[in-house]
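Worked Example 4.2. Consider the chain below.
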Amino acid sequence: MLALAPWSTFWERNYFADLLPSIGWFVRNYFVRGAVSGLGLINMVAGLAELWAVFSSRRR
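Applying the procedure from the previous section yields the following structure tokens:
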């Protein structure tokens, strides 16, 4: 979700970004979107590594 949401229209229609314009420009910044996507990708890699560890220990 974190990897794809910043680039969708869901991200553009953020209630809090519309309510507080000082947050809106920050949230819509491409660098912030990239950082959130990067965290999402890191989270997916960490999850896959955890799954790999669980399944590899089961085989032994």
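Residues 5-59 form one domain. The helical segments are 9-12, 15-19, 21-27, 30-59. Compare this with Example 4.1 before moving on.
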